Amino acid sequence: MTTGNVKQQRIKDKNIGIATLLAFAMIPMSGFATDIYIPSLPGMTHALSISNSQAQLTLSLFLISYGLSQLFIGGLLDSFGRYRIALVAMLIFCASCVTIANTHNIYVIYAMRVLHGITIAAMVVSKRAFIVDLYKGEQLKHYLSLFTIIWSTGPIVAPFIGGYLEVNFGWESNFYFLGGFAAVLLLMELIFSGETIQHTTPFHPAKILSIYYGMIRTGSFILGIVMLGLAYSMVMVYNMSGPFIIEHYFNLSPVITGYCSLFLGFAWMVGGFLGKGMINKPFVKKMSINVMLQLAAALLLLVMFSLYGGLWTILVFAFLVHVGAGFTYNNYFTFCLQIFPKNAGIAGGLTGGLCYVIVSMLSYGLIYVLPAEDGRHLSFSYVFLILVSALVMYRVFLLYRKRKAIGDGQ
């Protein structure tokens, strides 16, 4: 490994394999930070004497800070390296988790959740760039397509763990768990990892802004980010409303909430595997079919819940919607991160940043307009997001036809 112009602890060749596993282990942290305490949301409202919307705001604040932070953290990573920034972020994250677990002041929790968004952004974006730094060609494409699949372990495992932690130890235990997990990763990083960037980009704000501007002007890149935001908003709308529907409307326990989130998290993983398996299929055709199947599932949810009203109707049709969302996210995430390999930190940060800004605004806005009451409101939210996705896909189809016509004319 050459040292370039980064005077930091370089990663050793013999540790690249272990360090890559650690990078993949850090990717689900954003999912863990949102999903582990989903079964605890109703319990938090009671313990802290706050409203449902105040508890849901802890999710939205994390999402928007996580998204906005990625917009500038990518530039810092490309200028100052990945390693030290990630280490400092992990340490601060651990401390903020302990703070949340030891306070009952909702405004302190809000502040710590904003800090969570910033620190996890640094951790996750640094590891995306880590992969782009070390791998090229088909191997890079393979690893990038694994990102959404590995990330989905967070939504699958975290609520399952969180449900049992809530029942046995209270909502605070979720944050002790998060802090402990990050502490283990920090220790392993210190032992096995190191800096991977070969040559830094000088920290010239004007030059960095010009790179951002060039990326934003790339229509296909921005279109991909919009699709990522719409896809993940479908998951987040359920995450913000599902616990209240299950625990208030159906009067079931947080453990059941955890099992339901586990089931729907698995749907996202299935969609990711399908996306990876069909990565070389015609893009517009497969994405258009996916949107149509999602719309059919959302409409069936509305009809079947109105007729039968059981929890099973939500789970069956939401599962299908979430499979489609995972499929969309896998395809567009792989596409976006390959466009600008020379500025992997900025591209990864901009992709994740704008995506989560879209998710935070859409999900909280939909929950505000359609409160977490029953399956009908959830189905209306799904239908809205899918229809917007269809409009974006229509734009993709027009661009595809225009490009094909130009190619045929040459």
TrEMBL record:
Chain segments annotated as transmembrane: 16-38, 58-77, 84-101, 107-131, 143-162, 174-192, 212-235, 255-275, 287-305, 311-332, 344-367, 379-400
Membrane topology: Multi-pass membrane protein
Cited Pfam families: MFS_1
Record-level GO BP terms: xenobiotic detoxification by transmembrane export across the plasma membrane
Key words of the record: Membrane, Transmembrane, Transmembrane helix, Transport
InterPro entries the UniProt entry points to: MFS (IPR011701), MFS_dom (IPR020846), MFS_trans_sf (IPR036259)
SUPFAM superfamilies to which the protein is assigned, alphabetical: MFS general substrate transporter (SSF103473)
Chief subcellular location: membrane
Molecular function in Gene Ontology: sodium:proton antiporter activity
Domain Major facilitator superfamily (MFS) profile: 19-406
Location(s), subcellular: Membrane
Gene Ontology CC annotation, any one: plasma membrane
Annotated organism of origin: Chitinophaga ginsengisegetis
Protein name: Predicted arabinose efflux permease, MFS family
Family annotation (PROSITE patterns): MFS (PS50850)
Source organism, top-level taxon: Bacteria
